[in-house]
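Thread title: Can someone regenerate the structure for this chain?

I was given the following input by a collaborator and told the matching structure tokens would be attached. They weren't. Posting the sequence so someone can regenerate them.
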Amino acid sequence: MTEREADIDISTLRLDQPGIRAALGDLESDIMERVWQHPAGESVTVRAIWQELYPSRSIMYTTVMNTMTRLARKGLLVADKGGQAFEYRATVDRDAFVDRFVGGALEHLLVNFGGATRTHLRTLVDDPRVRERFQRLVDQIEARRATDESED
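Best answer:
Regenerated them for you:
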């Protein structure tokens, strides 16, 4: 994990929402999906995102601006002053975001409800390769937790 990825603040878990809306608000999700549609590393302005959103969602420009500022505070976007307007780019791609979110949620479940989490996850996994990958993930989480606890 890069230093920048470590700064991402994903603390919401809404299991009743589909896709990345489980981690981000509705507008935040729409904005991030639009940012990720641009080539990796390419900056976009608030105006460009607002123009992409407006046909399907009549929303104020300032609402998009404030939401992108909030996404930057959460570490998902980085803002650079480009000419007269700020330009934003994603700090991680969509797959990395999903991996980080799922890993964090799984880690919290394992820490708080270890036995039940392991039992239920094992029943969901029929493919031996997926089961092996799951076990490696659990082992990594437990090793990191043990290291963190020994440093305290």
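Confidence is low (pLDDT under 50) at residues 1-5.
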